[in-house]
Amino acid sequence: MAVNVSLTVNGTRHDIADVEPRLLLSDFLRETLGLTGTHVGCEHGVCGACTVLVNGHSVRSCLMLAVQANRAEITTVEGLGTPEALNELQIQFREHHGLQCGFCTPGMLITGEDLLNKYPLATDEEIREGLSGNLCRCTGYQNIVAAIRSAAAIRREKT
Amino acid sequence: MKPVKFDYVAPTTLDAAVEALTAANGEGKLLAGGQSLLPLLNFRMSRPAVLVDLNGINDLSFIELRGDSVAIGALTRHREIEHSPLIASKLPVMSAAMRHVAHLAIRNRGTIGGSLSHADPAAELPMMAMFYNASLIVQGAGGRRTVAAKDFFVDALTNSLEPEDIVVEIEFPVLQHDGWAFEEVARRFGDFALASIAVSIRSGPSSIMDARVAVMGVADTPLRLQDVEKQVCEIEIDGGTSERFSELVMSSVTPHSDLHASAEYRKHLLGELAKRAMRTALAARR
Asked: Mind telling me how many Å the CA of B80 is from chain A's nearest CA?
């Protein structure tokens, strides 16, 4: 039994036939579409590395089936910016040394984008609460918080 | 770390979903937000033959005022409850609890019907169902029926539903109170609670006229402490009210020790949270 899946990933439409229902969205993105920017850590919704935006909201792609993404619009870390033109949050991660080994970074960036969209992020406590579902194995949290704090401040100035 | 093979059905009506579940003959599993089920599938602790995905059924996601109750559709995501102005004004304790429900990405996907059906003893929404004395509307092979929250949670991760039953909506009666608080401690913010308490009161000039108290993390299901609710109305409001309330709460629970905390610690923690909660509830009253 297989299902056809049509979805948009980073602005590009994909029509994939015969997707096995048990295929996780994380594996679909990495293996079927070749988008390896989305990292797979724990595969049970604890580490947050595989977080992507589904219809604008952050979702753990290891806790969603690919067939459930039919008709969805997905943004992965590849869709945030390009190496030549990073988006504002990515610039702040670079400025503040918000990454070390880089494994958790895709999930941190996607979660950061969703946090910036939903919450004022006026205090570090609020930022840390928002990031509590994302683990950094280098324990480099201080600089990740600093990068998001700075991105939130820039957003406030702009509005 | 990958699920076993299963058949996938995505019905667009409730009747078709009940039919698919019935046809699965006990080997079927409902998929709502999937935030508890997918880890179980990935670990292969759950091996359903058929997965019935409810997400294509449109009319199961809503929050609406219905007389003196707020009705919430089973497929309503945690995020929608967290940000709902109606929940904030009518069910303020639930609104405060939502911030503690897992993490951002899980709140974006998880549903109230799924959380209640999963019946984790340390999850906020089952506790809120007990706290508000909620009614669950369930659709099964024999049509619709109503199940009270107190009859729904049987044991840890165990509800009283039949295999072909689906939680459709939940009604939360609004409390006419003037002070409330929600307190919780988890090892990591958003993780399952080590202990938590919800308190709501209506107070007179010198004593509490009506109280509602629920706790979790200290038993195999969330608990409503009806004895404490009665006893706290017999004590006067003075400087020692929150201490006496804390003693009442502590003496009414018998937590277990586990990997995360000893029984003594959980009891002590609950007592401390009870004190804080009553202080906040008393300070908030008009």
From this structure: 12
Residues 150-189 of B with CB under 8 A from A: 188-189
Task: Look up the domain containing B75 and give its range.
Answer: 58-173
- Domain count of the fold of chain A: 2
What domain range is A15 assigned to? 3-79
- What predicted TM-score, i.e. pTM, was given to this entire model? 0.95
Q: What is the DSSP string of B46-94?
A: ---SEEEEGGG-GGG--EEEETTEEEEETT-BHHHHHT-HHHHHH-HHH
Is the Cβ pair A44, B39 closer than 8 Å? Answer: yes
Q: Are residues A13 and A45 in the same domain?
A: yes
Cβ–Cβ under 8 Å, residues B72 and B95: no
* B63-74 mean pLDDT: 98
Residue ranges of chain A with pLDDT lower than 70?
none
pLDDT tens by residue, B122-158: 999 999 999 999 999 999 989 999 999 999 999 999 9
ipTM for this model: 0.95
Total structural domains within chain B: 3
- The verdict on B45 touching A (C-beta cutoff 8 Å) is no
Q: Which of B136, B155, B173 is the last residue of a domain?
A: B173
* Of A31, A46, A79, the domain-final residue: A79
Domain at A136, CATH number: 1.10.150.120
Yes or no, beta carbons of B5 and A44 under 8 Å apart? no
B39/A contact by beta carbon, under 8 A: yes
